[in-house]
Amino acid sequence: MAKHTVTLIPGDGIGTETTEAMQKVLAAAGADIEWEVALAGAGVMEEYGTPLPESTIEAVKRNKVAIKGPITTPVGTGFRSVNVALRKTLDLYVCLRPVFSIPGAGGRYNDVDLVIVRENSEDLYAGVEFAEGTQEAADLIEFCEKAGAGAIRPDSGISIKPISITGTQNIVRYAFDYAVAQGRKKVTAVHKANIMKHSDGLFLREARKVAEEYPQIEFDDKIVDAFCMNMVIDPSQFDVIVFPNLYGDIASDLAAGMVGGLGIAPGANIGKDYAVFEAVHGSAPDIAGQNKANPTAEILSAAMMLDHLGEQECAARIRKAVREVYEEGKWLTGDIRWATGSSEPACSCTEFTDALIRALG
Ligand code: NAI
Predict the structure, then answer these.
(1) What is the model's pLDDT at position 42?
(2) What is the pTM of this model?
(3) Which of the two ends of the chain, N or C, has the fewest CB atoms closer than 10 A to its terminal CB?
(4) Which residue's CA is minimally distant from atom 11 of ligand 1?
(5) Ligand 1 center from residue 277 Cα (angstroms)
């Protein structure tokens, strides 16, 4: 295996535990990786004056590939999401999240095999927001009224939802190219175009146009609320699913819940020049520092990274070992014991990692 240099952002909360487990598993699987550690999050605020230091962005740019642990974002106040900033700065416009059943992981279905493709830079995540009571919010409210767009209460906070033709075409094309490359049969676009005619309406219109370029792939669309119901009733009707940012975020957790939970859901943020791999889950403050986290999602994200680096054989070995540990059912973390309804004692993050390393031989 060729040597690769990868930027590692451990993150905070359970991130330090899950990324350490991931590094051990990759080493045991024979992945020849030199890790360049870069920091981000609340812990670096004091030293750098920002939760996302320039040196961290430079480290990702230098190595082109990074893997990160989750990073806590203060709710309601405080600094803006480091994750969103990283995606915007590096133009990681694709959020790719394969969702698949792992026997023994407590999924509600045994045959889920779908891929979530979430637009990663626009929509309500664009960060265009105006706090209630500010002059900017007042100006915007006045503008909307003058433009005949309707009245907005003067004590409103406002978040803007931009969805562009360029952004939509890029993400939908990625979804179709991915479907072609991976031998998948169908792409579904999810939206709320009946209500948000100029943002989701545009998304649907452009998705339909791009779909015409790929006659070999079936295309359909679903309104997001109906999508949720359909997904829960019968996930096998979906293959590749493309979403605007916010719906993709919510659907990712929904889908993760159907196959056993956030502990096993991997993901990647991909752009034309860089890729940053990370689990779907957050920093899990409720279990952080207790050696209880399930590192599977981070490890499967690393397997996606190995695929990206051209190390498919090593990635396949890791996925096989993960399946074996879950099938054996002896070493499972608390989230999976809960999902399976088992009263067997849960193992620690470290014990799970050791079991996986043994399975790798
Ligand atoms: P969360 O994903 O951190 O936790 C939700 C629930 O799932 C918790 O009960 C947690 O214990 C459990 N859980 C999550 N991952 C687990 C794992 N690997 N093993 C076992 N149990 C696990 O979501 P929450 O609580 O909404 O967010 C916490 C923080 O994480 C927030 O500050 C949020 O902004 C941040 N976050 C960061 C992300 C990132 O860095 N990419 C993504 C999502 C949230």
Answers:
(1) 85
(2) 0.94
(3) C
(4) 284
(5) 16
